[in-house]
Prior knowledge:
This protein is mainly alpha-helical. Among the domains are: 239-392, no CATH class; 396-487, no CATH class. 58% of the residues lie in helices and 5% in strands. Strands 2-1-3-5-4 form a 5-stranded mixed beta sheet, with helices on one face. Helix 3 packs across helix 4 (84-110) and helix 15 packs antiparallel against helix 16 (346-360). The longest helix has 27 residues, at 84-110.
Amino acid sequence: MTKGAALGPLQLIAIALGAWVIADLSFHFRPTNYFGGSSDEQRYLESALRWITNGPHPGRTHWSLRHPLVLSLVASFRQFDVSMWALQLVPRLYGDLLVSFSTVMMARAAGLRAAGTWLLLALFTPALHQSATNLGPEIVELAFAAISGWLFWEARGGGRGAGLAMAGSGLFIALAIMTRETAACLLPIYAVAWWRGRMGWPLAFAFVAGFLPPLLIDNGWLWLRSGDPLYRLHVDSAHTGIYSAHLTGGVYHGRVFLNPDLASRWTQAGPIKLFWLTDPIMNFFAAPEFALLFFAWALLFFSRHTRPARGSATARLMPWLLAVTIACYLIVTWVLTLRPQPRYYLVALYAASIAVALLLNGPAATRAAQRMRQIALALVLVCGGLTILLSPDRQRDARLILPWLKAHPDARLHIDPANRDRIAFPAILAGVNNRITKAPARIGQVQVRAFTPKTEQPGRWRQVAMLQGPWLFPYINHPRRLVIERRVE
């Protein structure tokens, strides 16, 4: 793939800036937003605030050890003050970095048309959109892993700058693994590629020179602060001891690696829930978060009209992209034994997006090939677009409740404990947190609840206000409705 080799530096800079702006604008549309409560986002927020108030410290949970994410959030808060905007800026910037860098590298590798196609596919992929608009490690891990993969690809042939590119590949995959261990799925791919490509020991040493320092510094610091040389491993291994509603029994105290018993206890996140071993694979093709990318990949590859010509660069690349997908599945499902949900398989999804972009831009020899590519592209864009469009705004209750509290400065609002925890951070930022309580409302007090047919005794409650969010699609996606009511008896 050398179509984009003639692109000059100014053209590549223009492509990078254009992709960055387009991605950033798209991430402002229907963002996932901060959830709060018992969510992972809340854990990362708490870890960052603890760094700000108490200084550097070794965390006690696996959330607090995701240092690339936590320290990025600390830096954002220190630069822009603690705010929802500064919180959301972190994943969005990593999403912009991922899209911009990948578009440039696709342009260099396969040409502008393939790069534009990949950009379109990426922005219409719900799992990527959700990760870039939600405070979590997924987009950080994927950005670092993608940069590492492309730098490895650049260095594979040796030549000028190959050692520096390979050292960069090692550095960024180390940062990806520090963010979340699922990125380790690329390491066996690199090992096989190095062996089959006969890249030589100098490039291997360059990779190690970039790979080891961040891991040694991070783990050495944790050892110094905790007295445990394997502190990260021990903390990460204890994550199933923390209650999870997605784990049968809530907690699990057995081995967390290579444990089929643990794997069978996780509840499946996708639409297909038959058997834990095969569900993730089938959900690759069925989960709306993946926008039918894996289905489009299979459709285009196995169709005789769009199958890449034997010996072509695209045909030679397909086994490697498939190997990345399989390695990602094995690492998540078998080795780390994590809950099989779309956000853990983003490396596989990224490989699928590259494969589909390349297959969509193959030579259109026949009208049947053009039609097949149009169908595949339409499936991805329609499925992905609708999933993003219909995804709920997780700050919708806060957007309704907090303005009402500001407009009624004497009101004190009672709310159920789960929702109270979810809106705590926005309420603190709005200065009304002390006027929201989890306690049940007594006579004369005001509560808020979701609008449902009333089941209370007649005359027990009197409606004070009805808060309604915006309509999106009449009769399809109904607006959020909350009832403010006063207890009268």
